[in-house]
What we know:
The protein has a 4-stranded mixed β-sheet with strand order 1-4-3-2. It has a 4-stranded mixed β-sheet with strand order 5-8-7-6, with helices on one face. The protein folds into 2 domains: 5-58, Roll (2,3-Dihydroxybiphenyl 1,2-Dioxygenase, domain 1), CATH 3.10.180; 73-133, Roll (2,3-Dihydroxybiphenyl 1,2-Dioxygenase, domain 1). The chain is built from 3 helices and 8 strands. The radius of gyration is 16 Å and the shape is globular. Helix content is 23%, strand content 33%.
Amino acid sequence: MRLDGFGLLVEDMGKMIRFYRDVLGFEIKEEEKTSNVYLVKDGTLFLLYGRKDFEKMTNRRYEYIKGLNGHFEMALYVDTFEEVDEAYKKAVENGAISVLEPELEPWGQRTCYIADPEGNLIEIGSWNKPYEEKDLTEG
Length: 139
């Protein structure tokens, strides 16, 4: 099997589309008024499913946590420490919930956490080097 993408079950489709598209820069492939929305970020498929539509399709009811939740996090990378601060500020000014302001961690990464309008955690971090070089070990 190959990883094709990630899906997120959402309550307010329009609000979530606008957040991921306008604040975090995801590319949208459909209109806002559909029940399954395909977004793409750096070649990775990111799906938004309407909760009620998914329940109808699977003929099941699900429980959803209100507010901030710790079920998973999505990690986004920027090339410099300054970009962490800029991305955090822009996101919070545009509707993200602040979870952890940018800080330099003991392991050398500058990171911060925000949450989308429905409480899903998003990390924005950097090792202060380009994405292509971040996992290279120094010898």
